[in-house]
Each structure stands twice: as C-alpha cells, then as structure tokens.
C-alpha cells in the first residue's frame, strides 16, 4: 500500500481495501525488555538525586519515548529494608521491627513484642500488604 500511495490518494486506497486511514499511519512502538526498563527507571531515579517518585519517573521516561505505567515503575522501584530497634516502656524493654519501602520512604509493615526474636521479624513481614512472592520484589534485611 505504501508503494501505491504515491500514485493514488491514501483515502481511496484505504476505502478500496476496507481499512481505516489510521491503520495506514500506525507505527507500533518498540517493546523494551524488563531489564532495559529496570535500568532506565534506576537511571532516572539516580539522575534525580533519588528524589523522583513514580509520576516523575514515568514522565521522564515518556519524554525519552519509553511508554511505561506508574504501576510498573512502582513495581520496579519497590525494595524493602527492615529495622529492629528497642525502647524502654514502663521499665521494660519493648522491641519494634519496622519494614520500610526505600523508594517512597514509608513504613509498610511492623510488629512489636517483648523479645527480640525471629518471630518478631516474620510477623512484621506478614503485615506487609504487598505480594512478596513477585520476582519484582527485592527484600533487603539489615
């Protein structure tokens, strides 16, 4: 059809073939691999001195011609760390385990108990409202 477009109007060719004009002009966008997207998201985040969130990273990548959803950016960015600390409450030690999402800097899970045990950490991990079995989730423990 592209060869014939120099001899006949596009509108007439599309009508004769029973296709819309938009399908003649349609050019599919290139697909990016998951690894490539991860690198681009990380690069955008690092270039912003680690200040960009999902909206700005999405806008930044779209300005580079990369189409990606905010949800996908969030999945790529989601990494957790834990912090186990203790405080004295009414003369007794109380231990708190917090699970932090490093990119949006919020507490996503927590637990409190009288003893510093592995169960305290497990309980904090279970309180996270995200699916931790996803291959996009990376857990970092400290």
TrEMBL record:
<dbReference type="InterPro" id="IPR050900">
    <property type="entry name" value="Transposase_IS3/IS150/IS904"/>
</dbReference>
<dbReference type="InterPro" id="IPR036397">
    <property type="entry name" value="RNaseH_sf"/>
</dbReference>
<dbReference type="GO" id="GO:0003676">
    <property type="term" value="F:nucleic acid binding"/>
</dbReference>
<dbReference type="Pfam" id="PF13276">
    <property type="entry name" value="HTH_21"/>
</dbReference>
<dbReference type="InterPro" id="IPR012337">
    <property type="entry name" value="RNaseH-like_sf"/>
</dbReference>
<dbReference type="InterPro" id="IPR025948">
    <property type="entry name" value="HTH-like_dom"/>
</dbReference>
<dbReference type="GO" id="GO:0015074">
    <property type="term" value="P:DNA integration"/>
</dbReference>
<protein>
    <submittedName>
        <fullName>IS3 family transposase</fullName>
    </submittedName>
</protein>
<feature type="domain" description="HTH-like">
    <location>
        <begin position="37"/>
        <end position="79"/>
    </location>
</feature>
């Amino acid at each position: 059809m592209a060869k014939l477009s120099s001899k006949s109007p596009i509108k007439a060719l599309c009508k004769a073939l029973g296709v819309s004009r938009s399908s003649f002009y349609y050019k599919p966008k290139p697909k990016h691999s998951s690894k490539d997207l991860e690198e681009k998201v990380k690069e955008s985040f690092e270039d912003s001195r680690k200040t960009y969130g999902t909206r700005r990273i999405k806008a930044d990548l779209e300005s580079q011609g990369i189409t990606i959803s905010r949800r996908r950016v969030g999945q790529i960015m989601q990494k957790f760390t834990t912090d186990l600390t203790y405080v004295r409450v009414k003369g007794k030690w109380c231990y708190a385990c917090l699970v932090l999402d490093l990119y949006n800097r919020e507490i996503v899970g927590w637990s409190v108990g009288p003893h510093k045990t592995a169960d305290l950490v497990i309980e904090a991990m279970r309180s996270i409202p995200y699916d931790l079995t996803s291959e996009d989730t990376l857990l970092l423990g400290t």
